[in-house]
Amino acid sequence: MTLAMSWDEWARHDGMALAARVRSGELTAAELARQAAAGIAKVDPKLSGVVEVFADAVEDPIKAGANAAGPFAGLPFLMKDLGPTMTGRLQEQGSLYMRGNRPAADTHLTTKMRKAGLNLMGRTTTPEFGVCSSAENPAVYVTRNPWDTDYTTCGSSAGSAAMVAAGVVPIAHATDGGGSIRIPAGVNGNIGLKVSRGVFSIAPHLSDLSGLVSIQGCQSRSVRDTAAFVDHCRGGAPGEFMPYWTTPEPYVELIKRDPGRLRIALSHQWGDYRATPHIAAELARVGTFLESLGHHVGYALPDVDYPKAFAAQTTCYISNFAIVINNLLASRQLDRPPADLIEPVNIRIWEAGRGTSFAERAAMQAVFNTTSRAFGAFFEEWDIILTPITALPTPKIGTTEYLTISDNPDVLDWFGNLWRNFAFTPLANLCGIPAISLPLATNEHGLPLGIQAIGKQADDGLLLQLAAQIERAIDGKWNGGATPTVHVTRD
Predict the structure, then answer these.
(1) Phi and psi (nearest 5°) for 72?
(2) CA separation for the pair 27, 369 (Å, rounded)
């Protein structure tokens, strides 16, 4: 196959730059799609991050639904195999149980993505139902980190993270119910923004109030790609339960200006969960760098009852997920999850959550309220909280304590294992506040470590402004300018 450009040239472009070349007539959307498909063929045998490539979307992106007049002008885009649906396309959610599932309609966000000009050309891997921290079940697939294939990508937006990091596409779809955009962005060296509640719609199946913690989004390699994605895909569907945020100007314009002097609070211990000394030192180093950009930096954290907050978050996950499983079972008239098709911990979560009472949910929501108010009060004094994305180094492939194929009989203990590593991301979901992972550090074994900036409700633009200021200060060289071992530019 003759490609439109060399891989070095391809990797130098972000998504907006590729779209500009399509609009100028230098390239076609089909040429971009063929190059992305060739990138998948080149790196995916080592990474296992793509479930399916849609041949028709490669051959003719516009006929497949991408809006040629949209700002992304037919840019290749991979969809996590969970969340927004595509009419007639398979969506199997990382599960043997869901094999052959073909949704009958596009969701609202799918329509927004197509209108923005994104060419939805394939599906990427995710752990079963997006529940655990790694797309790693040998019976389904094992997705590997492009920086070192002995390590996981984490999750749950596993395949999207791997493909963006490996240079296949500049931007890809991701979802986040407790860190699933930010965690894989952090361990794969990408940019990952979890937006505020009330930005991306999850219509028609749920609303932001019924979903409570789940957010749609993307991973990218440039701040402006993420900003453009938010600008053009945001907004509620008819009949939303809550208002959706609007902005006085597009984020792609806002990020051209540096933010004012920010009050940035560093924190590497939330309740009983503490980062390793190396990771804490990396956070301090980034804090010093931000001071050099003119910001005020100190150590502080919200006055939250952290054990209660994590317990409430756990109740939310368990009870929400039990309903998801119940609905799947009802569609096949089954009484319980089949053990040969649904992973062990997911069955245990269903068993633990199916009897959750209204009183238990009300108590959970009361903790959500007090936790959110505490973060709100904190942001009266500080503009941003800065934390590591993970408290511990990236796990190796086969570390089953984080996986839903684990034999751990205790669901609460299993969630406790997650919180020990991933404590710094889920409370932003609980509160509905924005948070972004930026590839600014490394962990003990030299792999990327994201640094997370958290802001107050609807301050997504401020996080993007800070990210863009950093990007300019480092001359666009995220990850110190390094590229992964498995990358489209490498043989």
Answers:
(1) -90, -10
(2) 51
> Measured between alpha carbons, how far is 126 from 133 in angstroms, rounded to an integer?
9
Active site residue ranges? 80, 156, 180
- Which residue has tokens 């700002």? 71
Nearest-CA neighbor of 5 among 42, 32, 37?
32
Q: Which residues of 318-327 are buried (b: 16+ CB within 10 A; e: fewer)?
A: bbbbbebbbe
Residue ranges in 93-247 assigned as alpha helix (H): 108-115, 158-165, 182-188, 208-211, 223-233
Torsional sign, CA 290, 291, 295, 297: positive
Mean residue pLDDT across the chain: 97
Report residue 215: phi and psi, to 5°: -130, 140
At residue 487, the pLDDT reads: 98
Helix (H, G, I), strand (E, B) or coil at 275: coil
| Residue bearing tokens 């004012």 | 260
> Are the beta carbons of 93 and 130 closer than 8 angstroms?
yes
- What backbone phi and psi angles, to 5 degrees, belong to 343? -70, 150
Q: Which residues pair with 66 in a beta bridge?
A: none
Residue 379: phi, psi to the nearest 5? -75, 0
Per-residue pLDDT reduced to its tens digit, 122-180: 999 999 999 998 999 999 999 999 999 999 999 999 999 999 999 999 999 999 999 99
pLDDT (tens digit, 9 = 90+) per residue, 273-326? 999 999 999 999 999 999 999 999 999 999 999 999 999 999 999 999 999 999
Instruction: Give start and end residues of each alpha helix (H) in 339-424.
Output: 344-353, 358-378, 411-422
Residues recorded for the chain? 491
pLDDT for position 242: 86
> How many other CB atoms are there within 10 angstroms of residue 335's CB atom?
6
4-19 exposure pattern, b = at least 16 Cβ within 10 A, e = fewer: bbebeebbebbbbebb
Q: Which of the 8 DSSP states describes residue 400? A: G
* pLDDT tens per residue across span 412-435: 999 999 999 999 999 999 999 999
Q: Are strands 136-137 and 191-194 parallel, antiparallel or unpaired?
A: unpaired
Tokens for 76?
Answer: 């290749």
Measured CA to CA, the distance from residue 120 to residue 57 in angstroms comes to 7
- Measured distance CA(168)–CA(36) in Å, rounded: 6
- CA 216, 219, 223, 229: dihedral to nearest 10 degrees? -40
Q: Residue 1 pLDDT > 80, yes or no?
A: no
- Three-class secondary structure of residue 465 per DSSP: helix
